[in-house]
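Hi support team,

I submitted a single chain yesterday and got back a structure, but I'm not sure I'm reading the token output correctly. Could someone confirm the output below corresponds to the sequence I sent? I've pasted both exactly as they appear in my results page.

Thanks,
R.
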Amino acid sequence: MINKLFIVLSLLAISTLAIACDDDGGGGINAEQWCADTCQKTVECALGPTLSECTTECEEMAANMLTDYLDAYSTCLLDAECTELTADPEMCATGSEALCTTDTADYNRAACLKILECDGNTDPTEAEITQCITRQHGDGDMIKCFKPALVQHTIDCIEAATSCSPAPVATCVYDILGLTLGTGNTNNQQ
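Hi R., thanks for writing in. Yes, this is the structure output for that exact sequence:
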């Protein structure tokens, strides 16, 4: 599970450095090269999937994340020894997380309102919404590492969803951000 989380965080980190039109103030990075380098390190340290799988997943998110976060993450990953990364697979994600600055309050609320609606609760209490948000963060709040405009686009997608099948939150997050929501959430609508 830790290896899978490391891979997901690695891929998240890898992805945004490739952005040519970056709305977070960071410089653009060649995503293909960034993903190749970072995935090579992941494979070298036996921390995840094959190089091909890693690169494919990485490139799906490359243009969507905050550049400063990805830059710090990749610097950490590429400078670390495999023994360090094996001992603490989350060290680079944790060390770079302070650079994830996108406000996710509106996203969390929109996602939970849709999740609860799809579960048959069309008039949730604030306590139910708060409980849902807490469950959402079972995998960590990686949404805060994505570009604000794309998070807003994801919110718009979730709010516009008229069907609960397929799960609108997971679908919008994947379609717009390239992020597959994890299994740490107890609600399958996410």
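A quick pointer for reading it: The chain has two domains: 2-99, 105-177. Let us know if anything else looks off.

Best,
Support desk
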